[in-house]
Specification:
The protein is of the alpha/beta class. Helices cover about 40% and strands about 20% of the residues. It contains 17 helices and 18 strands. About 0% of the residues have low confidence.
């Protein structure tokens, strides 16, 4: 039995950009052929990008995707790649599964392209309908398994959720017997998910008694980040190859005729490739790089080459500025100091220091004269006057965006957003919020990690130490600090994690030992701020439960925890 060399092409696609996506398929197929591959597998929905949401329901979009698919098959053959087996993902035409009780809808499809034509199609069986996924509403499930004969080996094909659910095509393939199982994935990043993927894949590999090749897409798409991290597990569940995270990559691996270990080359004429196992990232680096990837993808795919944000000298804006410099280059970051009568000298100094460290375009625009005019006309006091300062700052940033074409970044974090400490139409303005799913405790951890990484590389740390160590403050009134009106952030984040991410109620929180006064205050703040969160800019999901798609609560609700 001849051996099979496979290549997993974890690439960055853009929803709806059929031309660029299919051009990338041909380009990466060429790289796979140059590496001696017999089979190259691309991620889920490669042709269309993922997730396509309600675009799936447009007949014009489906026609465009099918035309692009057939054009790609022809272009592969014209490029001399006709003998290479190429598996891609796309949207399938609308079909009815009336016998299964499913309505007529399109499918999430994997397609084998070879010799200038479509040789096989497979429709995803299990359609996720939880968290960020809404596939059951837009797709209809497949009902048949797919086994390809490639170089004398039986290769089973499934798509993402098919391996997360027991039964279905994996069980059928286990009964039929295969030599390799390939899985096309559009699996979004979240903290700790990598271990779940490999453990699940190992279980499925043992179930089908064959190696499993898992290819995942990479890049940012709206509020989702895809981390790549494609891998291969042998039939016994051992990880034998792994691609790096957060980068386009071609992972090449030789399937042994016996058990899926690295062999001595397919067809006996190509030297064996040593197994590639990219090192795992620690949690802070993983999350930091996820946020950078999300921002870079959102900006590029929406036509932005620069960002603008307010630099207060505080930790949140400092971290967002550092992330922006890593995503787009410091020269493409416009940092604006917007001092009021309450802004401290050290905050203004820290903002200037940060801008110099990352090479940002630094500007100073005092807001005092503008605030004075509003206050003189409206006579605002107290919280209304504090919010006015934030809203004037938001107007300035949006004005710069309109005039110069920058993407405005909101700098608030998940803890503040949870309890409503974000001025609507003020510091909440913007098109993207990099820290939307990062609590305050993690903001400090990421800042320390980023500075430490710079020191290890022999570079200047981007974030001034004083921005990390000083007490956080909005500086909207004399001597103000966040802890005047909030519990300490380490305690606040514990309560928020239990209430928001784990959906625990008041009784469960009290049973954990939290102070009833703290619990009641935090729960009240969270429940009252739902309307603000609904209007906040989108930002990259990095935890198991992010505000937005993951957590959908009514704004108008009289339910309160008893």
């Amino acid at each position: 039995m001849a051996q099979l060399r496979i290549a997993l092409a974890q690439i960055d696609t853009c929803v709806g950009d059929l031309e660029a996506n299919t051009r990338a398929i041909v380009e990466w197929a060429r790289r796979a052929a140059d590496a001696g591959a017999d089979l190259v597998v691309f991620p889920e929905m490669t042709v269309t990008g993922y997730p396509i949401e309600d675009l799936a329901l447009r007949a014009s979009f489906r026609r465009g995707a099918e035309a692009a698919l057939l054009r790609t098959a022809a272009e592969l053959a014209e490029a001399g790649l006709g003998d290479l087996a190429v598996i891609v993902g796309t949207v399938g035409e609308t079909i009815a599964r009336e016998h299964a009780g499913a309505p007529a809808r399109p499918t999430n499809q994997a397609v084998l392209l070879r010799r200038g034509a479509v040789e096989a199609r497979y429709d995803k069986h299990h359609l996720p309908n939880y968290g960020v996924f809404d596939e059951f509403r837009i797709f209809t499930p497949g009902d048949t398994a797919c086994v390809l004969d490639l170089r004398g080996q039986r290769v089973g094909v499934v798509i993402c959720e098919d391996i997360w659910q027991d039964g279905g095509p994996v069980s059928q393939l286990a009964s039929d017997g295969i030599d390799l199982l390939v899985v096309l994935n559009g699996s979004p990043f979240e903290e700790g998910k990598g271990h779940l993927r490999t453990e699940l894949a190992a279980r499925r590999a043992r179930e089908v008694r064959a190696p499993l090749a898992y290819v995942n897409m990479v890049g940012g798409q709206d509020d989702l980040v895809f981390d790549g991290g494609s891998f291969v597990v042998a039939g016994d569940g051992t990880v034998v190859a792994r691609a790096p995270q957060f980068a386009e990559h071609l992972l090449v691996w030789d399937v042994s005729a016996d058990d899926g270990s690295v062999g001595d080359g397919p067809a006996g004429d190509v030297p064996a490739r040593p197994a590639e196992i990219a090192p795992a990232l620690d949690v802070d680096e993983e999350i930091y790089r996820a946020i950078v990837t999300g921002l870079a993808g959102y900006a590029r795919k929406n036509g932005f080459t620069s960002v603008v944000l307010g630099l207060s000298g505080g930790i949140d804006s400092a971290l967002v500025a550092a992330i922006s410099a890593d995503a787009l280059g410091g020269e493409n970051v416009v940092g604006v100091s917007l001092p009021s009568r309450y802004s401290s000298d050290h905050s203004k100094d820290d903002a200037a220091d940060l801008a110099q460290r990352i090479g940002a375009d630094y500007r100073i625009q005092p807001i005092g004269p503008m605030v004075d005019v509003f206050e003189g006309e409206l006579g605002l006091e107290g919280v209304a006057a504090e919010n006015l300062q934030a809203r004037v700052r938001g107007v300035i940033l949006m004005g710069l965006s309109n005039a110069e074409g920058h993407l405005v970044l909101a700098t608030g974090n998940k803890s503040e957003l949870a309890v409503g400490y974000s001025t609507i139409y003020g510091d909440a303005v913007g098109g993207y919020a990099p820290l939307k799913d990062v609590d305050k405790s993690r903001v400090w951890a990421l800042s320390r990690w980023r500075n430490g990484a710079a020191v290890e590389a022999g570079l200047v740390p981007p974030i001034p130490e004083s921005s990390i160590t000083k007490p956080p403050s909005a500086e909207l009134r004399p001597g103000q600090v966040d802890q005047d009106s909030l519990p300490p952030y380490d305690l606040l984040d514990e309560v928020l994690d239990a209430y928001v991410e784990n959906a625990e109620g008041r009784d469960e929180l009290l049973a954990r030992g939290f102070d009833p006064l703290v619990v009641d205050k935090v729960l009240s703040l969270v429940d009252r701020a739902e309307w603000k969160r609904r209007q906040y800019p989108l930002g990259p999901k990095v935890t198991a439960l992010a505000f937005g798609r993951d957590r959908r609560l009514p704004i108008t609700s009289r339910w309160r925890e008893p």
